[in-house]
Amino acid sequence: MARHIGIDPLGIESSGARGAAGEGQRREGGNGQGGSGAPRQGWLNAAEGVFYRLGIATVGYADNTGNGSRWTSAVTLFTPLNRRFELRWDIPLILSSRGFATPGSPYEISSPDFQLAPRFAISETESSAQSFDITFRMPTGDVYNGQGQAAVTPFYNFWVNPWEGLVFRGGVGFGVPFGNQSVNVLDARSTFLGNFAFGYYFTDHDLTPIGDMVWYVATNLTQAIDHRGPNTTTLTFTPGFRTHLGGNWYLLGGTEIPVTSPEPFDYQVLGGLMKVW
């Protein structure tokens, strides 16, 4: 998941996770492969593709960001208005980090930026789905923590269930910051964004607390495309899991590991608790 949750276009996770959602569907109904395949669910740090009706609380811990560590937390709500249109609300809670501009500065607690994403369904079959998001990041956070950025991020998502419990998902998009504070004060960059993830569901929905157990790996690529600095490329891998605890409550987790230099952090631990309704 998301970005979310979604994918953060500017390199700072406002929710501690990029993408995390699911419909709580039973493996024997409403799934891919004519009802016998994988459920239409989302994973941490993976693109969405399908629509949801749920809420998820997320936390993230990034170790050694170059100026200490960073804690993030947020609540994300998916609110469908019809079969073709829904809104994703990334509601920030708490962010703790050192000042982004001064190495060794003291830690300060604030709130990340708020994000709102209209989502449009492009197509859907039994075993595939496509969607298009436009995420609006609003400068509600504190500049001290590297927040207070305004940006718009168009993003294409896909989800495919080609065989039994096997799922491929991903997407591409662009992060475009705007405004004096975002560009000149925070040095936010315009970026190309790419995501690809694959995983396999090993258990049935009702086998709680390990129902709908999926293990997966998500990859995320961020490439600076403007002329305001070096053409930095950041590639990360996130091995993760998701399980149905019971009563349409889900537990999600993952660890994001960068494999390119410069590294945005040594590693980032992500977690989420979700309720589907």
Feature tags:
277 residues, mainly beta, 53% strand
Structure write-up:
With 277 residues, this protein is an all-beta fold. It has one domain (33-276): Beta Barrel (Porin). It is built from one helix and 13 strands, in the order ββββββββαβββββ. The chain has one helix at residues 180-185, and strands at residues 54-63, 70-80, 85-98, 107-110, 114-125, 128-138, 150-163, 166-178, 191-201, 211-224, 233-246, 249-258, 267-276. A twelve-stranded antiparallel β-barrel has the order 1-2-3-5-6-7-8-9-10-11-12-13. β3 and β4 form a beta hairpin.
* Number of separate domains: 1
Helices, by number, come to 1
Overall shape: it is: globular
The average pLDDT value, as a whole number, equals: 88
Q: Which structural class matches the secondary elements?
A: mainly beta
CATH class: Mainly Beta
Strand ordering within the main sheet: 1-2-3-5-6-7-8-9-10-11-12-13
CATH homologous superfamily - what is it? monomeric porin ompg
Helical fraction equals under 10%
Q: Which CATH-level-2 architecture?
A: Beta Barrel
Largest β sheet strand count, sense and barrel closure? 12 strands, antiparallel, barrel
Radius of gyration: 18 Å
How many E-type strands?
13
Provide the β-strand percentage band: over 45%
Distance between the termini: 19 Å
